[in-house]
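anyone seen this seq b4? input:
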Amino acid sequence: MRNYTQEQLERYSRHILLKDVGVEGQDKLLDGKVLIIGAGGLGSPAALYLAAAGVGTIGIVDGDRVDLSNLQRQIAHYTKDVGEWKTESASEKMVAINPDIKVIQYNQYLDASNIRGIIREYDFIIDGTDNFATKFLINDACVFENILFSHGGILRFDGQTMTIDPNKTACYRCVFNAPPPADLVPTCSQAGVLGAVAGMLGTVQAAEALKFLTRAGTLLTNRLLIFDALTMDFRTVKIEKNDNCPVCGSHPTVTELIDSPAAVCDLKSS
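predicted toks r here
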């Protein structure tokens, strides 16, 4: 157990009071490493909550700069940040919340050539991207590297998320198999999204990362959480690992990473 300063004991007191977290759990958070892919609508609230919680090392991947249209939902970025790298903007807010943490910035997009080398440095991955090509790339890379990750997706008033424990539980391809044809699903800019929906889902993803690091509770594995913010209906759909899955099944056909054309949002975060 580390020696906490009085300031740290006060900062993390609400975690330490939880019997399922306590001092040992906070130690695990401070020793933990989480990578957030996409510093947008999902990645912003996830990043801020992980920083506040004291996750010791947080990586942020995003090759985009802050745009005025992002500010309606991407709460890690302020008006003054328009034109700045999203990774730098998010990092500034995270360290301002909690100077205990270390933020590693990746001002780039992920592709088949670099993703495995980046994700293998982390304990847990949060997918905050908004295109199917990258979501399948993240899934396949995490399966190959055997790293847990949280999938999240939002559109209009709807959100969905699930956590994948590769080779043990259903993966993203077990459920969705392959990216849809281009133009079948509308883009964020075409269909819109209620800003608060991003916050609702991103905080669920952050909670999954914190639960994994502290070993508290039950992860959202083999279940797809779906919600509709218009009606505030929440439901979970049971899913199963698919033995015929092309990446984690008994006879995989996806045996290497391949870059696919982006179907929506040009590889940008949601």
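The beta strands are 33-37, 57-61, 102-106, 124-127, 148-155, 158-164, 223-228, 233-238. DSSP finds ten helices and eight strands in the chain. kinda curious what u guys think
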